[in-house]
Write a structure and sequence with these properties.
The structure is a single chain. It is built from 2 helices and no strands. It is an all-alpha fold. The chain has 2 domains: 45 residues; 92 residues. The two termini are 72 Å apart. The relative contact order is 0.03.
């Protein structure tokens, strides 16, 4: 859902529905963040407990091996999820470049070409005749000076 920005020069009151939606969104975000932090803390606590019990002298080495295999499997799972998130972000970046940046660049190129044409037109139609007129007037003034007539 795309929201249209409100111009800064309009003085509209903020509706209670907008405030309710905003507070609901903030509450959801805080809940999600708290859940993620809680999950990370839980996993770290479980890992600490597992390491404590695995470091006991009576623990056989095959259990240590099994636990580390599980840890490596969980790590590869986390890396897989991170790669999926990275691919999704890359796809949204490519979409942004193709659908928003490219039209802006095309419009900018068109504007630059228009300005180039305008500058050439002004150079040929306005500036060149004015420069020629000034050069003729300077020549006429110099000729009058040489004849002894002082122009003002």
């Amino acid at each position: 859902m795309t929201e249209t920005p409100i111009p800064s020069n309009t003085r509209e009151e903020i509706k209670p529905e907008d405030l309710a939606q905003k507070s609901e969104l903030e509450r959801r975000q805080k809940t999600i963040i708290a859940g993620i932090i809680g999950g990370i803390v839980f996993l770290l606590a479980m890992l600490g407990i597992a390491i404590y019990f695995l470091l006991q002298p009576a623990t056989p080495t095959d259990r240590i091996r099994d636990v580390f295999i599980i840890v490596v499997a969980l790590e590869s799972l986390v890396i897989g999820v991170a790669l999926i998130v990275l691919i999704v972000q890359l796809a949204s970046l490519i979409n942004l470049l193709q659908n928003e940046i490219r039209p802006i660049l095309a419009a900018t190129t068109e504007t630059v070409n228009t300005l180039r044409g305008t500058a050439e037109f002004l150079g040929e139609s306005v500036i060149e005749p004015v420069v020629k007129l000034n050069s003729y007037l300077a020549g006429l003034r110099r000729m009058l000076e040489l004849l002894g007539i002082k122009p003002k």
